């Protein structure tokens, strides 16, 4: 009884102390001495409340253990431990886990506009420069595919996010997965619980490495066409670009590189505007009669891969949606970003092709007059070189996590020492990856072929095939008939386009490789 009275007096004293502290905090806040933000104050208040409940639970536990009798019912867990969603005890008082679990809800999130900016950066990158070349071989059907790809990629992005959620026992929709790999593993479970994740990782590595190769190819191409009078070949320019990129092997994080990402994106938009402005200045000479209704059967499948590759963003959408302040705005964000991308890409591709018609080159800036071509291309090369570390670092992380840091399932010993430093052979592997991108750029210096191959292989797989397949596998019981029809149609059409584009792109690359080997 005395213990119970002491606990009540302690609670009253604590309550009075909390109220007095609140008054003092309010007085200091009015005086301009606010120690924490409103979100931090709420988080600390929740931690204090839960800490009090936990202490009271411990006191009830002591009273039950002191005054318990034989045969008495054991205390309910709800009287002793704080239950989160009905399960699991509260971590110890004052622990980092208790406060981090609550304060995690107050972490800075991104708005729908910021999420849209990230998606726009992914689907409006410098690979848009290859779209006029796709119109050259596809005509009006190429324009239709730019629209069709935007609609399909927007839809598959939405259904991919739907695969992250499931309905709990209370009928509420809750997020149970965090990434593309988690979705793939869930589809292959229980027989092959890690097969799907490995397939997605392989596709992701291929796409990231091919993106690095494309940056080296486009750098050599742009510099060669900017200074044609210099006695430097395109291969030599690619070697020079790789020498500049070699320090990427020493990267530990992307803090230094990320500072330039916004400037690079703004510079790219300015370049696109300059190209369109030049094309509009020649509107009187536009060759409308050159836009065909028929297609080049041999080269049009390559155009499909180019168009699909320019829309790839699915691989990071789960992480992006999970960091949004209001995930319900994700669908709206996907709608306006892909509508804007469709309009801008269609106009850019059509206007550029109308200006140069059959003389349209793989990289459209090579068609510009020499007076402005060098300036524009130098900015593009700078953007390509500054963009290279992002996919390179992501590919290195996936490789290291899968092959060297996957616990007992790792194929090779850890490439990091006990002090966190990269071992010499790990650094050698990174340098080898940079050199590999150079060799591919030297032997296959064809921007459109590489872009078409990547889009047909990994782009179509990650954007068309896998999202529709996962959606059918995980949510088929709850899907309406038109969703099933859309998923099946996208899977079939995407599969046909992927196979045909891959075969034609591979044939072109083999032929180009043989030609370069003979030279």
TrEMBL record:
Residues 109-505 form the Amino acid transporter transmembrane domain. InterPro entries: AA_transpt_TM. Keywords: Cell projection, Cytoplasmic vesicle, Membrane, Neurotransmitter transport, Synapse, Transmembrane, Transmembrane helix, Transport. One of its GO terms (cellular component) is presynapse. It is a multi-pass membrane protein. It comes from the Eukaryota. Residues 66-103 are annotated as: Disordered. It catalyses: 4-aminobutanoate(out) + n H(+)(in) = 4-aminobutanoate(in) + n H(+)(out); beta-alanine(out) + n H(+)(in) = beta-alanine(in) + n H(+)(out); glycine(out) + n H(+)(in) = glycine(in) + n H(+)(out). The chain crosses the membrane at residues 141-165, 205-224, 260-280, 300-320, 332-354, 374-399, 427-444, 450-472, 484-503. Belongs to the amino acid/polyamine transporter 2 family. Antiporter that exchanges vesicular protons for cytosolic 4-aminobutanoate or to a lesser extend glycine, thus allowing their secretion from nerve terminals. The transport is equally dependent on the chemical and electrical components of the proton gradient. May also transport beta-alanine. Acidification of GABAergic synaptic vesicles is a prerequisite for 4-aminobutanoate uptake. This is Vesicular inhibitory amino acid transporter. It comes from Sapayoa aenigma (broad-billed sapayoa). The gene is Slc32a1_0.
């Amino acid at each position: 009884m005395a213990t119970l009275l002491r606990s009540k007096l302690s609670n009253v004293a604590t309550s009075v102390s909390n109220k007095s502290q609140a008054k003092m905090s309010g007085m200091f806040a009015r005086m301009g001495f606010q120690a924490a933000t409103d979100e931090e104050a709420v988080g600390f208040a929740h931690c204090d409340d839960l800490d009090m409940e936990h202490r009271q639970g411990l006191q009830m536990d002591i009273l039950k253990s002191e005054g318990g009798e034989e045969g008495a019912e054991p205390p309910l867990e709800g009287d002793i431990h704080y239950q989160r969603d009905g399960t699991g005890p509260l971590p110890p008082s004052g622990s980092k886990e208790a406060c981090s679990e609550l304060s995690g809800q107050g972490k800075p999130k991104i708005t729908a506009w910021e999420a849209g900016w990230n998606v726009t950066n992914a689907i409006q990158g410098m690979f848009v420069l290859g779209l006029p070349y796709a119109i050259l071989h596809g005509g009006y059907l190429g324009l239709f595919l730019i629209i069709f790809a935007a609609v399909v990629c927007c839809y598959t992005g939405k259904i991919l996010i739907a695969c992250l959620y499931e309905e709990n026992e209370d009928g509420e929709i809750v997020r149970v997965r965090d990434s593309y790999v988690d979705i793939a593993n869930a589809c292959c479970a229980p027989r092959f619980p890690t097969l799907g994740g490995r397939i997605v990782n392989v596709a992701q590595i291929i796409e990231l490495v091919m993106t690095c190769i494309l940056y080296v190819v486009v750098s050599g191409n742009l510099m060669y066409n900017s200074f044609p009078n210099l006695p430097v070949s395109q291969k030599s320019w690619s070697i020079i670009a790789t020498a500049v990129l070699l320090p990427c092997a020493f990267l530990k994080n992307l803090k230094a590189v990320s500072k330039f990402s916004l400037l690079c994106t703004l510079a790219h938009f300015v370049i696109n505007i300059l190209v369109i402005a030049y094309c509009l200045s020649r509107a009187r000479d536009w060759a409308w009669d050159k836009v065909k209704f028929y297609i080049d059967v041999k080269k049009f499948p390559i155009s499909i891969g180019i168009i699909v590759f320019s829309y790839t963003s699915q691989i990071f959408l789960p992480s992006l949606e999970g960091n949004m302040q209001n995930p319900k705005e994700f669908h709206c964000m996907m709608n306006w970003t892909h509508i804007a991308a469709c309009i801008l890409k269609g106009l850019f591709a059509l206007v550029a092709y109308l200006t140069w018609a059959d003389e349209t080159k793989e990289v459209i800036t090579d068609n510009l007059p020499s007076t402005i071509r060098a300036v524009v291309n130098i900015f593009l090369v700078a953007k390509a070189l500054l963009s290279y570390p992002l996919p390179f670092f992501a590919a290195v992380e996936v490789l290291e996590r899968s092959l060297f840091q996957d616990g007992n399932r790792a194929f090779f010993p850890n490439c990091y020492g006990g002090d966190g430093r990269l071992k010499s052979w790990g650094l050698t592997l990174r340098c080898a990856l940079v050199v590999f991108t150079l060799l591919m750029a030297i032997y296959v210096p064809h921007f459109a072929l590489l872009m078409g191959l990547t889009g047909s292989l990994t782009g179509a797989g990650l954007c068309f095939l896998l999202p529709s397949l996962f959606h059918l596998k995980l949510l088929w019981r709850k899907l309406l008939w038109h969703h099933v029809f859309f998923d099946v149609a996208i899977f079939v059409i995407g599969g046909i386009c992927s196979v045909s584009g891959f075969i034609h792109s591979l044939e072109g690359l083999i032929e180009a490789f043989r030609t370069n080997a003979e030279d």
